[in-house]
Design brief:
With 547 residues, the protein is of the alpha+beta class. The chain folds into three domains: 152 residues, 3-Layer(aba) Sandwich (D-Maltodextrin-Binding Protein, domain 2), CATH 3.40.190.10; 117 residues, Dipeptide-binding Protein, Domain 1 (Dipeptide-binding Protein, domain 1, Alpha-Beta Complex), CATH 3.90.76.10; 217 residues, Roll (Dipeptide-binding Protein, domain 3). 25% of the residues lie in helices and 22% in strands. The strands form seven sheets. A six-stranded mixed sheet has the order 16-20-15-19-17-18. The protein has a four-stranded mixed sheet with strand order 1-12-11-10. A hairpin with a 5-residue loop joins strand 3 and strand 4. The longest helix is centred in the last third of the chain and has 18 residues. It is globular. The two termini are 39 Å apart. The N terminus is likely disordered.
Length: 547
């Protein structure tokens, strides 16, 4: 899934500055990229709040499967946790990394990173944050018993220790640029060590609790109904003092029902608005449909290299047979562009002045059914089965799955669709056993930082996010070189090589890029609009639209 400038210039500060680049349409604010659908403009924030609110209701497309930061690896849990828990560093709505619970860090040598913690920070129960809490929080990712999807981010770590009352040192067996950057995402989250010990396996579940440092505290989790957060009156960052007293999250899986909640006002707002409702919401007069920067691209992830898709010619044929512009029109409301690579253009913010060059060198996705048929014939794959998992979790998933099935039929592949419940679909991303028996999966490949290398780490051999266990020696070699390179230009050039390898081998088949959608009802404003809301305390800035 997911930003910054060279670490060499940041050895004494944690302000990893980056210029954010919005995805699809950002360069042409009133264009959609496909010539269909509503015109849109990409901005990182909505208009500032004009006053306080007692409460607001926010719609999620699914109930979080956990509120344990170490297991959070999807939109619903991170959307809630962004307001409750915080990281050593912080991602801003503009896509920069700045100090968070750490005031800074220094790299004393290529294998040692020292974080200086912010004094005076308290957990929601009133106890002070210490270096012991940071050590316990980070080490959980490395414990196999935790089962953290972020564990592979710590593969270079040889030790995490308290080296002062407000100092934590991370020791590595080799330079690991991404790990430092990911201290602004789930891997850098700090929880009370006492709370972790108290609740054990119940931590982050409806039976347990969450005790972090954010602007909101967990008040109640009514399983199957709602999650309620309450304002933290002792929050340390006065710039983000919450403007709303309580935030209640409701879970609405059905897209039509979710749209009706926005229109009726039973939900004040929500991210990842159903694309099928763009036109209706925009013309309703009930609020604002806004689009923010996105680092995500919709992709097809290959899950099984022992089956039909193990043949590169079959993967190439399937890619050629996909009508991406038609998919964008049906799945994304016409708002988007065909993806030229697995990682979206919006993910390339490390050296933004070079992004266009990296993408201009890539060919536009081809749509050539006859060429695809020839590849299937050469592979001897005509009539062979491909099993694709789909779900009513989002209309876009079903649209893409049906398009893949139709493309397969045109070129001689038997694409079988197997539908699973929304919670089972979410499990596919965190439980390798859940992926057994499937060949193909629709993913939304996003990153947490402005460094596209973060996306490509998920294709290295053995990584947790490498869902199909794809392996390529050249890719792994180039990745290791890039992750040890502190110069941003050189690292971006190496990442471009990874991009080229991925496009040649297609372990992930790119589909399309679209901006990040949010709906704000008439009574609220102030929300960040982009994907950075997954780690930025977005609810703290929401308030009344009228004074």
């Amino acid at each position: 899934m997911r930003m910054p400038r060279a670490l060499t210039s940041l050895l004494c500060t944690a302000a990893l500055a980056a210029t954010a680049t919005a995805c699809s349409g950002a360069k042409n604010p009133n264009g959609t990229g496909t010539g269909t659908g509503p015109a849109f403009q990409v901005t990182p924030t909505s208009a500032p709040a004009k006053g306080p609110l007692d409460s607001l209701t926010w719609s999620l497309y699914a109930e979080p499967y956990t509120l344990d930061y170490a297991l959070a690896f999807d939109y619903p849990p991170n959307t809630v946790l962004a307001n409750v828990c915080e990281q050593l560093l912080r991602v801003t709505p503009e896509g920069r990394i700045e100090p968070g619970l750490a005031t800074g860090f220094r790299q004393t040598d290529p294998r040692t990173v020292v974080f200086t913690l912010r004094p005076g920070v308290k957990f929601h129960d009133g106890t002070p944050m210490t270096a012991d809490d940071v050590v316990a929080s980070l080490k959980r990712h490395m414990d196999p018993a935790t089962g953290s999807p972020w564990s592979s981010s710590f593969k270079r770590v040889t030790g995490i220790e308290k080296t002062g009352p407000l100092e934590v040192t991370i020791r590595l067996n080799r330079t690991d640029v991404l790990l430092t950057e990911l201290m602004a995402a789930s891997p850098g989250t700090v929880e009370s060590a006492a709370t972790l010990a108290k609740y054990g396996k119940d931590y982050g579940t409806p039976k347990g609790s969450v005790n972090c440092t954010g602007p909101y505290a967990l008040d109640k989790w009514a399983q199957g109904d709602s999650i309620t957060l309450k304002k933290n009156p002792a929050y340390w960052d006065r710039k983000l003092t919450p403007k709303t007293g309580t935030v209640r999250f409701t879970f609405i899986e059905d897209s039509a029902a979710r749209t009706n909640a926005f229109l009726s006002g039973t939900a004040d707002g929500g991210y990842l608005v159903p694309s099928t409702s763009y036109g209706q919401l925009k013309s309703s007069g009930k609020g604002q449909l806004l689009f923010g920067p996105n680092t995500a691209a919709a992709d097809l992830s290959v899950l099984n290299y022992e089956g039909t898709l193990g043949d590169l010619k079959v993967r190439q044929a399937l890619s050629l047979a996909l009508d991406r512009k038609g998919i964008i029109k049906a799945a994304a409301g016409g708002v988007g562009v065909p993806a030229k690579a697995p990682a979206a253009r919006g993910a390339w913010s490390l050296v933004p002045e070079k992004t266009a060059g990296y993408f201009d060198a890539l060919p536009e996705p081809e749509y050539d059914v006859e060429k695809a048929k020839k590849l299937i014939a050469e592979a001897g794959a005509k009539g062979r089965k491909v099993t694709m998992v789909t779900s009513p979790l989002a209309a876009e998933i079903s649209v893409v799955a049906n398009a893949v099935q139709a493309a397969g039929r045109q070129i001689g592949l038997d694409v079988e669709l197997k539908t699973v419940a929304p919670d089972a679909y979410s499990s596919l991303f965190v439980d390798p056993k859940a992926r057994a028996g499937y060949d193909l999966l629709v993913t939304n490949g996003y990153i947490n930082t402005p460094d596209p290398l973060e996306f490509y780490q998920y294709l290295r051999t053995g990584d947790f996010g490498n869902y199909g266990n794809w392996s390529n020696d050249e890719f792994d070699y180039v990745f290791d070189r890039a992750n040890a390179e502190t110069d941003p230009v050189k690292r971006s050039d190496l990442t471009a090589r990874l991009q080229k390898i991925a496009m040649a081998e297609l372990p992930v088949i790119p589909l399309y890029e679209a901006p990040y959608p949010v709906f704000l009802g008439k009574r609220i404003t102030g929300a960040p609009t982009g994907i950075q809301q997954l780690y930025y305390p977005w609810a703290a800035t929401i308030g009344a639209a009228q004074p």
